[in-house]
Structure prediction request, 335 residues.
Amino acid sequence: MTQKTLLSGIQPSGKLMIGNYLGVLKQWTSMQEDYRCFFPLVDLHAITVRQDPNLLRERCYQFVALYIACGLNPQKSTIFIQSHVPQHSELAWLLNCFSYMGELNRMTQFKDKSQRHANNINSGLFGYPVLMSADILLYQSDLIPVGEDQKQHLELCRNLAHRLNHEYATEKSPLFTIPEPYIPPKSSGGRIMSLQDPSVKMSKSDSNEQNVVFLLDEAKSIEKKIKRSVTDSGSEILYDEKNKPGLANLLTIFSLVSGNTIESIVDSYQGKGYGHLKVDLAEALIEHLRPLQERYHELSSDRGEIDNILKKGAETAKNVAQKTLSAVQNTIGLV
Ligand code: TYM
Prediction:
C-alpha cells in the first residue's frame, strides 16, 4: 500500500507560539509516523507583509530548530524552505490564470490583512491563497493539517484542483489529488484564542505580547501572562465556549499540555477559583515547554546541521514538485 502524503506550512513571521504548536506542530509530530510528510517553511508567504531581511533569515533558522525540538524528524519528514524550491512560484503563476478575482476577494484573511496593512495592500497578499494552493497541489497531498483559520484557503485550493481536473479531464489519472483538510475541533487546539481578548485567535505576529505564549518564553513570563489572562465574570469552573470563552481557552490549553481531558480538569477544580487553575496551568505549560526549549538551545547553535537538513529537504521536495509541474505544463500546452 502506498503511503499517503501530508503537507503543512508555517510562515516565518513573528515568533512561534502555543497556538501553532497545539493547533498543528504537535499533530505533525504524531502524524509523521504514518504519512509521507512535507513541511515547507513558507517564506514567500511571509513577504506579503514587510519583513526586516536579517530578522526574516534568522527566523527561518529559529523555526527549523524549533520544528526539530518539537519532535519533527528530518530523517522521516521533508523539511525545507519554500523559496528553495522554485516550482512553488511557477505553479502559482499557472494557477493564477485559473483563479477568479471574485473568489480571491472573498477571502477573510485578505480582508483582515488589508485592514491591518492598509498602506501595503500588494497583489502578493491578494494572490496568497493561490500560492498556498500551489504548495499543496505540487506534492499531490492527501491531507493538510491546519488550524481553523486556514479552512477557507483550503476550500479554494480544492476548488482550483477540481477546476483543472475537470477542464483537462483525460483517461489517465487526474492532474491533481484533491486534498482533505484536517482541522482539530476548537477544544482540541484548532483555534487557540488570545489571552487578553478570547474573541480573536492567538497570533504569532500580535503586537501585544501579553496575548500570546511563545514557545521560547521564560517561565516568569509564562506565569505572568497566564495570571493576567482575561477570564470571565463569575468564579465557577466549567467549559462554556460561548459564555466563558476565556476560561474555555485556558481549559483547552491545560488539557492539551497535561494530557488530561477537559472534563476531568473541570471536575478536579470544582469549588476552587480561577486563580488556582491559572497557577497550575502556568506550571503545566512551563513543564511541557521546558524539554522543548532545552532541545532548541542545543540545536540552534549548529547552523551547519540546519543547513544540511534544508539542503536535503529542498532536493527531495524539488524532485517531487517537478513531476507535478511538468505534468501541468504539458497538459496546458506549454512547449
Ligand atoms: P500561519 O503561519 O499563520 O500559521 C501556521 C499554522 O498554525 C495554525 N494556527 C493556529 N492554530 C490554532 N490556534 C491558533 N491560534 C493558530 N494560529 C495559527 C494555522 O492555522 C496554520 O496551520 N497560510 C498558512 C501557511 C501555509 C500553509 C500552506 C499551510 C502556506 N502554505 C500549505 C498549509 C498548507 C499560514 O499563514 O499559517
Summary: Residues 303-332 form the longest helix (30 residues).
